[in-house]
Design goal:
This protein is α/β, with parallel strands linked by helices and 465 residues long. It is 29% helix and 15% strand. It is elongated and about 110 Å long. InterPro entries: Leu-rich_rpt, Leu-rich_rpt_4, Leu-rich_rpt_typical-subtyp, LRR_dom_sf, PX_dom, PX_dom_sf.
């Protein structure tokens, strides 16, 4: 990103070409500040308007701008001559205003889009005028990566000599707004910004100004861009990181820790209030020890990653909801020893064939196993005695294509068959009647005496005596 105040002597402007659109001639200006460059196009009338302001307010010579020409002003020869004259004009004005760089001139050259200082002036004005309304009405405020980078870089600068004295443009308005933001969204991009050579996802920033942040959503931003999380470990409640190519949770949880060694970490890196983590659509293949840094975690979403097995997360005593859909699970063994008292599990769109690993999840209320490879209806025997289970999804498994699939599943829940919601639908009375018949046949087949026959035999013996 451009930093004009640090690269004044390494900055140039050039009117490089002229082009016509809808019978109007535009002159393309290339601006270079250090290694950063961009271009902006203006018609001659824009130069005239700018010149009037610079003459009136900043002492630019009135006769410096090349004059107007009414007749034959569209010929290629004239357009080229005017381009050369405008180029000379712009270079002279740029040199003359190099130290002061007034806002009118900066905006004409699009400094407010690509330069740290001038972008922050515009942002400060916006937040001075609209900040309170934004805080009141917005559910989540969105800062661009270039804005966050500019704020972070401004912290490193002394008060620049071009800083406006008008209170409206004071940097403190930005800091005040940031300190009050409760919910923040950040979206990254690998596409160059506007006409510049600036790539947003190559800019560094930190989150130090956000003192009250509760909810943070990050989309498509590499974790390497974040240099510090500031005080978020003491305030953040909900965290979402999507499409960021994350392979480990500690990429964010320890983003500002140089040595990510489990044995050397102190309590200062614990996320004290974080209860919701959503790292869906990344490249995570293992839930590592960093999960212990979030002891209050209640909701964990790792959907659309590359997980094939689950490590021990029983240390998360408050964990209630676990979303592992669209991963690579095929075998789930002894999950009761790994996940504690989880209430809801989503394992849809995996490659699971057996339910044996869920047989001792006694606190489980909801289990989504849709779009897996379960083919035998008898697998339900492993979960039919879970006392709290109410919601079960098996749709889009091979077993769901079998004859009387719903009845055969519901029947295995015995006395609780009417309580079970299978594939988002409770059993109808017809299904329950059929299930009771199947249950009776199963009992006979297993050589057991149905309860109603036991009662009849007892009564007969009593009458006989």
């Amino acid at each position: 990103m451009s930093s004009f105040i640090n690269h004044r002597n390494d900055s140039t402007v050039n009117v490089v070409e002229a082009s016509s659109k809808d019978n109007v001639t535009f002159y393309k200006i290339v601006v270079k500040v250090g290694s950063v460059q961009w271009d902006v196009s203006h018609r001659y009338s824009d130069f005239v308007e700018l010149h009037e302001k610079l003459v009136n307010d900043h002492g630019v010579a009135k006769d410096l701008l090349p004059p107007k020409k009414v007749i034959r002003n569209k010929t290629p020869k004239f357009v080229e001559q005017r381009r050369e004259a405008l180029n000379e004009y712009l270079k002279n004005v740029f040199k003359y205003l190099l130290l002061t760089m007034p806002a009118e001139f900066a905006h004409f050259l699009d400094f407010h889009l690509y330069d740290i200082f001038f972008l922050l002036q515009d942002l400060a004005k916006k937040l001075f005028l609209e900040g309170d309304k934004l805080l009141e009405n917005e559910k989540s405020h969105k800062f661009s990566l270039i804005e966050l980078h500019a704020i972070s870089e401004r912290f490193k600068m002394a008060c620049p000599p071009t800083e406006k004295q008008d209170q409206m443009f004071d940097f403190s308005h930005i800091l005040d707004f940031c300190s009050q933001v409760k919910s923040l969204s950040i979206e990254g991009s690998y596409e160059k910004l506007g006409t510049s050579n600036i790539v947003p996802n190559e800019l560094y920033f930190d989150l130090i100004p956000f003192k009250s942040l509760i909810d943070l959503k990050i989309l498509g931003v590499p974790m390497g861009c974040i240099q510090s999380v500031g005080s978020l470990r003491d305030s953040l409640v909900s965290l979402s990181v999507h499409i960021a190519s994350v392979v480990s949770l500690n990429e964010f949880l320890l983003v500002d820790v140089l040595h990510k060694d489990q044995s050397s970490l102190a309590d200062t890196v614990i996320w004290k209030k974080l209860t919701v983590i959503n790292f869906a659509s990344n490249n995570i293949n293992n839930v590592d020890w960093a999960i212990k840094l979030v002891p209050k975690l209640q909701h964990l979403n790792l959907s659309s990653n590359k997980l094939s097995e689950l490590c021990d997360i029983s240390c998360l005593h408050d964990l209630q909801v676990l979303n592992l859909s669209m991963n690579r699970f095929s075998i789930c063994l002894n999950w009761h020893a790994k996940i504690g008292n989880v209430v809801k599990i989503d394992l849809s769109q995996n490659k699971i064939e057996s339910l044996q690993g869920f047989s001792k999840l006694y606190s489980l209320e909801s289990l989504d196993l849709s779009c897996n490879l379960i083919s035998d209806v008898e697998e339900v025997q492993h979960i039919c005695n879970l006392p709290c289970l109410e919601y079960l999804w098996l749709t889009a498994n091979p077993v769901a294509s079998s004859i009387d699939y719903r009845v055969k599943v519901i029947e295995q829940f015995n006395a609780r068959m009417s309580e079970i919601c299978l594939d988002n639908e409770k059993a109808s009375e017809k299904e329950l009647d059929t299930a009771r018949v199947l249950q009776a046949l199963r009992i006979v087949k297993e050589g057991k005496t149905p309860s109603f026959l036991k009662n009849n035999n007892t009564s007969h013996s009593f009458n006989k005596s």
